[in-house]
Design goal:
With 732 residues, the protein is mostly beta strands. It contains three helices and 44 strands. Strands 37, 39, 42, 43 and 44 form a five-stranded mixed beta sheet that branches. The chain has a four-stranded mixed beta sheet with strand order 1-7-6-3, with no helix packed on it. Strands 8-14-13-10 form a four-stranded mixed beta sheet, with no helix packed on it. The N terminus and C terminus are likely disordered.
Length: 732
């Protein structure tokens, strides 16, 4: 075992600078060490940048170390893995370096000399031999001081330790040992010890020596010799075996006892050789951090928590040095190992990963049981039992519209709908969900629990529109003209909702429907239709305010045989006028119900323009009700003149033709028709006026030509007359 003074020596060796060559370290280890392995020999003070390199251990001349030595790169300890024999090798020369992966030396080499110490050196070389000359005084022995003998004395046995002498002749000696021990006496009174003594077996003996004559009679009372076996420090402290990990709860206060070490020393109880003290080797205190995580009492071996807090889940191996001789130089030591496991406590409250969710829109007709949102919570504790969570709706659900659904061992909770929503009752909801730990929280300020708010918006749901019938049917003769009214589609509740109608799947293009009124008319003649056939289209009705709300019903048209064509009796209609270019005016056309000669009953009537293509191009006829229609210009410009428009009126199987006389004229700004005026008597016509104007212009031209010709000829005559022919002026 390594003596305690050797530990002090190794610790006192200064750490050399990385640039300087470290001084050689010397370490001694007893041969045939019987303690625990690995045995920590000495700690090398590696530089802080050691984390960047690799600790290398080599033998002489840089060769790899093949012996039972190793380096702990985390703690920097040099250790031996098995017992050594001095006879096999007395010393080992090692080198320790810190190198990078490319073999570049960062620190070292540090030479270390390991000497194997002979186990005989552990025993005392001094002998305690008492030579006793005993004389008789009044027939009694002279009292003697105790004889001190060293244990495990390495001498030849039997070994002489004392001599007694009884004055007289023919004296024989007899020896008794209490308890029985390895002692003997010869005829001359020499006392011997016949073998090594051991304090663990017996620390003291009481010897009695009798002096007898030849007849075996005692001369006097026996001589008592007190033999004390002196204890030698030849036993290494034995650490208790490493047991299971010691569990320490997280956040345990400083001073909490982790364990109590009790190393045993086989040397004499109560002697300095068996006085064991303890020293904490690892973990060491960190630089810049006050306090240590563990402390050890040197005397009692009690390992307690320090001021540095521990984290749950840590597994720490404590190395405690047990030294005899109270840690003095020359003693032995052993390294005790204690594994500490920091157990988790419920000191973390669960938290939601998101505190705000939504807004989430839900239609008010959504089915109960629908998943509204999924919330997730986490717990930083390690123990599964401490991660169990309990969820609850804290506020925002007074009427129990929502409920929570989760697995006991899951951090996910679903917010589900358990009642029908109502936009009128509550257009929105803010549901606050709280999460708490199932187990009771410990530690400072556990808090009330984390919350998450789920915002739900309720969408108002309008029922789809409903018509007064689920299926419509109408019959029409195949000879029905374009514009014939077939039927009217009406909503079941025309007051509360307004609808817009349209036709779907009108492949032949025979029908049309008024978007607002729902009246279905024929758009053209039913060419190709046969009596007895049916024609099915879909009538789609959309809500005017909510176009996405719609409904559709089938409309079945039954084609009938055309009735005999009745004689169309044209009915004259009083003349009316319309303006061109087109203005917002029209002509109201009345049905023939007021004329008993043209009709046998009252409306409703169907109105349509006559089959003349020009009429259908220039004019437009719109039904106002069952008895009137509205006639307007279809084109922006129609030739100003009097137009006669044929309008076909049908009622049941009867048909009439109305001749509507319309005067198209230009209008002034007030919308009044400007009519063409006839020629007045005595007024010239256009042709005569033009002739007079042209004749006048011609006469003026001839007159101008004559004047210009006369002036030209007169000027020419004056230029041709001689100068002397000019008459002289008379002198007065």
């Amino acid at each position: 075992m390594v003596p305690a003074w050797l530990w002090l020596l190794c610790i006192s060796v200064p750490q050399a600078l990385p640039e300087a060559q470290p001084a050689e370290l010397s370490v001694e280890i007893p041969e045939n060490y019987g303690g625990n392995f690995p045995l920590y020999l000495t700690k090398l003070l590696l530089p802080r940048e050691g984390a960047e390199g690799q600790v290398m251990l080599s033998g002489d001349s840089g060769k790899a170390a093949q012996g039972p030595f190793a380096m702990d790169p985390d703690s920097g300890f040099l250790l031996v893995t098995r017992a050594l024999d001095r006879e096999e090798q007395a010393e080992y020369q090692l080198q320790v370096t810190l190198e990078t992966q490319d073999r570049r030396v960062l620190w070292g080499p540090q030479p270390v000399l390991v000497r194997v110490k002979d186990e005989n050196d552990q025993a005392s070389g001094h002998q305690a031999i008492a030579t006793v000359e005993v004389s008789i005084i009044e027939s009694t022995w002279v009292p003697l001081e105790p004889i001190h003998l060293a244990e495990n004395l390495k001498v030849l046995y039997p070994h002489h330790i004392a001599q007694v002498h009884w004055s007289g002749v023919d004296v024989h000696y007899r020896l008794e040992s209490h308890p029985l021990g390895p002692f003997d006496v010869d005829a001359e009174g020499n006392l011997y010890v016949t073998r090594e003594l051991d304090t663990e077996a017996q620390a003291e003996y009481m010897l009695q020596v009798w002096a007898q004559n030849s007849r075996g009679e005692d001369y006097a009372a026996p001589l008592e010799l007190h033999v004390l076996v002196m204890d030698e420090n030849d036993n290494v402290p034995v650490c208790p075996p490493r047991g299971p990990a010691v569990s320490i709860p997280e956040l345990s206060p400083p001073g909490t006892e982790v364990t109590r070490l009790s190393a045993e020393d086989a040397d004499a109880p109560g002697s300095p050789n068996s006085h064991i003290v303890y020293q904490l080797l690892s973990p060491e205190s960190e630089d810049g951090v006050e306090g240590r995580a563990f402390q050890v009492d040197p005397t009692s071996g009690s390992v307690t928590l320090g001021a540095l807090p521990l984290q749950a889940g840590q597994n720490i191996l404590l190395l405690v040095l047990a030294m005899d001789l109270a840690g003095a130089e020359g003693g032995f030591s052993s390294t005790c190992e204690v594994e500490v496991e920091v157990t988790d406590i419920n000191d973390h409250a669960p938290e939601f990963t998101t505190s705000q969710i939504g807004p989430i829109s839900l239609p008010e007709d959504v089915e109960p049981g629908t998943l509204v949102a999924m919330l997730t919570a986490t717990d930083a504790d390690l123990e599964p039992a401490f991660r169990l969570m309990d969820f609850a709706i804290e506020r925002g659900d007074m009427d129990g519209t929502f409920e929570l659904d989760w697995e006991p061992d899951s951090g996910h909770v679903g917010l589900r709908l358990c009642k029908n929503l109502s936009y009128e009752a509550a257009p929105s909801h803010k549901v606050v969900v709280v999460v708490r730990s199932v187990a009771e929280l410990v530690g400072p300020g556990p808090g009330p629990g984390a919350t998450a708010t789920v915002t739900v918006l309720v969408e108002r749901v309008m029922p789809p529109p409903k018509l007064d019938q689920e299926r419509y049917e109408a019959s029409v003769p195949i000879s029905a003209p374009a514009g014939s009214l077939l039927l009217t589609i009406q909503p079941s509740d025309p007051i509360s909702r307004s609808l817009r109608f349209s036709l779907v799947n009108d492949s032949e293009g025979w029908l049309c429907i008024e978007k607002v009124s729902g009246e279905v008319h024929t758009t053209q003649s039913l060419q190709g239709a046969q009596p007895g056939d049916t024609y099915t289209v879909l009538v789609e009705a959309q809500d005017t305010d909510e176009p996405r709300l719609s409904t559709s019903v089938p409309l079945v048209i039954h084609f009938l045989k055309a009735p005999p064509a009745p004689a169309l009796t044209p009915a004259p209609v009083p003349s009316r006028y319309l303006c061109t270019p087109r203005q917002d005016h029209g002509v109201i056309v009345s049905g023939p119900s007021k004329d008993s000669d043209l009709a046998s009953g009252h409306g409703p009537y169907s109105f349509a323009l006559g089959p003349n293509p020009t009429v259908q191009r220039d004019w437009r006829l719109q039904t106002l009700n069952g008895s009137h229609a509205y006639l307007t210009l279809a084109l922006h410009w129609v030739e100003p003149r009097e137009h006669i428009i044929p309008v076909v009126v049908s009622h049941n199987a009867q048909m009439w033709q109305l001749l509507v006389r319309v005067i198209v004229c230009r209008c002034n700004v007030e919308g009044q028709c400007m009519r063409k005026v006839g020629r007045m008597k005595g007024m010239p016509t256009k042709l005569s006026a033009v002739g007079i104007l042209v004749g006048t212009l011609v006469a003026i031209g001839i007159f101008l030509i004559l004047i210009f010709t006369h002036w030209t000829l007169s000027r020419k005559k004056d230029l041709n007359q001689p100068a002397d022919s000019v008459p002289l002026k008379a002198t007065v």
